[in-house]
Amino acid sequence: MKTLPQINYLFSLLPITPTDNWFQTLNSLTTQFYWKNKKSRISLSTLQNSKPQGGLEAPNFLYYFLSNQLQYLLKWIHTDQSSPPWLQIEQNHCKTTSLSDLPFLPQSIKKQDYYNNITVSSTLTAWWKAHEITKSSLAPCRLSPMWHNPDFQLYNTPVYFPSWQHKGITHLHHLFENNQFISFNTLIQKYGVGRDQFLQYQQLKSIIKSKINTSNNILQSSYLSEEIFKITTPKKIISKMYKLFSLSETSITLPTTKWEKDLALPPNLDFWIQINKNIFSMTTNTNLQLIQYKTIHRIHITQGKMFKMGLISTDICSQCTLGHTDDYLHATWSCQPVLSFWITVTETLSCILGCRIPASPTLCLLGDLTHITIPTKHNNPLLISLTIAKKIIFQNWKSKHSCHIT
């Protein structure tokens, strides 16, 4: 609990971007800490994922760094009378380019002199990295500036019409209506552009259309832009940004393929999200949550796995007479002493709860409640009881005949 605030403090103050190797080293040290210098059984990226997606929401230091850097970008966008004095210093470095326009310029601005300013470059680098993580597009959008923009060049120089800027024409959305480039007459009526500037109009129209397919492009801002610019108050600003990055990962980080093969389950994303949610909603007891979490992730070492590691001479289960390979499903369910234990557990729970609890691996191992009919008030007690039963199995992992209800 002490380390993360200390690192966040550095992230918020130092205007430098750590190297990829630095983050890799930090992640390596974190993994060693989590697993007590033993080989990890669940990857750090999985642990950092959101709980519904199969993670434990462990801190992602890269996401925290980006969140800290992007809080300054918001100050570029939302300026007011209480803006800090450093904003004016950065604006002076950018000269004719407004700070609020920088997020909507292409990465080719790295060639500009103002990019040599370490605070500006660090913030923009974080912005581009955030787009990469959230799979957002940096394509020209309605908020892109037209002037001093490397995307829009006339005679190999960024286009700039001072008289148009003075009339309030500064961004792409000023030149589009209903996703169509406005006519010259509309431009005259709306902004008072002189009729003698038709040539500039045609030049600008040609430049923009060469970069944007106006027939198919709605000039939508990127997902990241839309979401971040909704943040208008400084309260919990880092947490809000961090959540944006966390929610960008939508894949399930579980061994779903193995479970679906073992239990003949059809692929179903919503099913696995609910299984993950059940882990943390059934109880606030972190020990029980961890037992169920480890079960879902199949991290326990079976004889089959030990055989593959070359630690034993056979993968056949030594605790029953079935002669089956001791894979994860066998070890936690179909092994004779384990299955007998599960039957006893479900029969006992049926008597206690006054309703039939089937001896089903999807229920007992995964915590799937969709195929049983019980009062809602019994859901959590049932899941807790089944998790305690799994705890007994894991405590007697090497002597499963000792599994019993006391």
Structural overview:
- The structure is a single chain.
- With 406 residues, the chain is an all-alpha fold.
- The protein has three domains: 3-133, no CATH class; 153-211, no CATH class; 256-402, no CATH class.
- It is 50% helix and 2% strand.
- The protein contains 19 helices and four strands.
- A two-stranded antiparallel sheet has the order 1-2. Strands 3-4 form a two-stranded antiparallel sheet.
- Helix 4 (61-77) crosses helix 6 (118-133), helix 14 (286-296) packs across helix 19 (379-395) and helix 17 packs antiparallel against helix 19 (379-395).
- The longest helix has 18 residues, at 336-353.
- The chain is elongated, with a radius of gyration of 30 Å.
- The two termini are 38 Å apart.
- 26% of the residues are buried.
- The mean pLDDT is 90.
- It comes from Sphaeramia orbicularis.
- This is Reverse transcriptase zinc-binding domain-containing protein.
For the CA atoms, what is the radius of gyration?
Answer: 30 Å
Q: How far is it from the N-terminal to the C-terminal residue, by CA? A: 38 Å
SS elements, strand count: 4
Largest sheet: 2 strands, antiparallel
What helical percentage do the residues reach?
40-55%
State the domain count.
Answer: 3
Beta content comes to: under 5%
> What structural category characterises the helix and strand content?
mainly alpha
Number of helices: 19
Shape: elongated
Order of strands side by side in the largest beta sheet? 1-2
Mean pLDDT: 90
* Unreliable residue runs: none
Q: Could you state the order of secondary-structure elements as H and E?
A: HHHHHHEEHEEHHHHHHHHHHHH
Organism: Sphaeramia orbicularis
Protein name: Reverse transcriptase zinc-binding domain-containing protein
